[in-house]
């Protein structure tokens, strides 16, 4: 066989090896060893292997750089996440403290409104009693207009 024919045959066999199921590789390899050029075929096979290795290395380098970039981004995000976590914790603490102050103020307001309502109820009840005080007062019960009781009656 001429060297061009042998080279073409070897290329065909290599393509067949690369594209064929490994269970059917036996007859393909037998055709290589049946001819006398198996040393030349081995050289071509090693060249093909080196080419594939270079392609794999390029692909790995490309993906490795992407991996490194991703890890760098994750580290930046982790730092930002830590800052955000601290800010959220600080804000939560401030809200808790402000909430306690608000609850205290609301409780004081509730107490004041309860007192205000009790005072209004007392004034209302005493207002209903005023006619009785005026009726009783002229009949000899001591009534001092400057006393504290007189102030209550005037209201």
UniProtKB/TrEMBL annotation:
One GO BP = intracellular protein transport
Q: Name one GO cellular component term.
A: exocyst
Instruction: Give start and end of each Exocyst complex component EXOC6/Sec15 N-terminal domain.
Output: 44-132
The organism's place on the tree of life at top rank: Eukaryota
Q: Which Pfam families match?
A: EXOC6_Sec15_N
**Name used for this protein in its record:** Exocyst complex component 6B-like isoform X1
């Amino acid at each position: 066989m001429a060297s061009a024919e042998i080279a073409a045959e070897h290329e065909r066999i290599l393509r067949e090896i690369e594209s064929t199921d490994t269970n059917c590789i036996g007859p393909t390899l037998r055709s290589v060893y049946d001819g006398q050029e198996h040393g030349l075929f081995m050289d071509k096979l090693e060249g093909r292997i080196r080419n594939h290795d270079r392609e794999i290395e390029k692909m790995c380098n490309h993906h490795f750089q992407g991996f490194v970039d991703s890890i760098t981004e994750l580290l930046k995000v982790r730092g930002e996440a830590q800052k955000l976590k601290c800010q959220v914790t600080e804000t939560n603490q401030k809200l808790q403290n402000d909430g306690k102050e608000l609850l205290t103020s609301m409780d004081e307001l509730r107490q004041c409104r309860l007192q205000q309502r009790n005072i209004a109820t007392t004034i209302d009840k005493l207002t209903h009693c005023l006619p009785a005080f005026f009726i009783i007062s002229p009949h000899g019960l001591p009534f001092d207009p400057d006393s504290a009781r007189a102030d209550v009656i005037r209201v």
